């Protein structure tokens, strides 16, 4: 049986750099979170890759990961469902796009319905 070839993601966080001043502890932080009025969010509906379960995905959030998690928690609590907030997206279980869009608009966000 042939050995599996390793990709860069399989190397456990190694960073290869030709920069002599690179210390490996530099991480790119998201800039400050934009005000809700300056944010343009998209409300998507998806069931792809989730075993037929439907989810609402909020994309386009610009800000820190902590603020993303706080907004995700607020939306999940208001909808009474589970979900997650990571990689710049908020995933809410179920098709609650209309309710989520209403909540985001009430908070001052610019929200657009995308797809179906």
TrEMBL record:
<dbReference type="GO" id="GO:0003729">
    <property type="term" value="F:mRNA binding"/>
</dbReference>
<keyword id="KW-0810">Translation regulation</keyword>
<dbReference type="GO" id="GO:0001731">
    <property type="term" value="P:formation of translation preinitiation complex"/>
</dbReference>
<dbReference type="InterPro" id="IPR001950">
    <property type="entry name" value="SUI1"/>
</dbReference>
<dbReference type="InterPro" id="IPR005872">
    <property type="entry name" value="SUI1_arc_bac"/>
</dbReference>
<keyword id="KW-0648">Protein biosynthesis</keyword>
<feature type="domain" description="SUI1">
    <location>
        <begin position="47"/>
        <end position="108"/>
    </location>
</feature>
<dbReference type="InterPro" id="IPR036877">
    <property type="entry name" value="SUI1_dom_sf"/>
</dbReference>
<feature type="compositionally biased region" description="Acidic residues">
    <location>
        <begin position="20"/>
        <end position="35"/>
    </location>
</feature>
<dbReference type="InterPro" id="IPR050318">
    <property type="entry name" value="DENR/SUI1_TIF"/>
</dbReference>
<dbReference type="GO" id="GO:0002188">
    <property type="term" value="P:translation reinitiation"/>
</dbReference>
<keyword id="KW-0396">Initiation factor</keyword>
<dbReference type="GO" id="GO:0003743">
    <property type="term" value="F:translation initiation factor activity"/>
</dbReference>
<dbReference type="GO" id="GO:0006417">
    <property type="term" value="P:regulation of translation"/>
</dbReference>
<dbReference type="Pfam" id="PF01253">
    <property type="entry name" value="SUI1"/>
</dbReference>
<protein>
    <submittedName>
        <fullName>SUI1 family translation initiation factor</fullName>
    </submittedName>
</protein>
<comment type="similarity">
    <text>Belongs to the SUI1 family.</text>
</comment>
<feature type="region of interest" description="Disordered">
    <location>
        <begin position="1"/>
        <end position="36"/>
    </location>
</feature>
């Amino acid at each position: 049986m042939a050995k599996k070839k390793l990709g860069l993601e399989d190397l456990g966080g190694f960073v290869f750099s030709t920069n002599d001043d690179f210390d490996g502890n530099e991480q790119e932080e998201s800039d400050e979170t934009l005000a809700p009025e300056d944010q343009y969010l998209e409300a998507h509906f998806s069931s792809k890759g989730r075993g037929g379960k439907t989810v609402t995905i909020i994309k386009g959030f610009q800000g820190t990961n902590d603020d993303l998690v706080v907004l995700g928690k607020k939306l999940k609590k208001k909808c009474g469902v589970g979900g997650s907030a990571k990689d710049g997206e908020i995933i809410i279980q179920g098709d609650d796009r209309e309710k989520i869009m209403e909540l985001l608009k009430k908070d001052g966000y610019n929200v657009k319905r995308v797809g179906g």
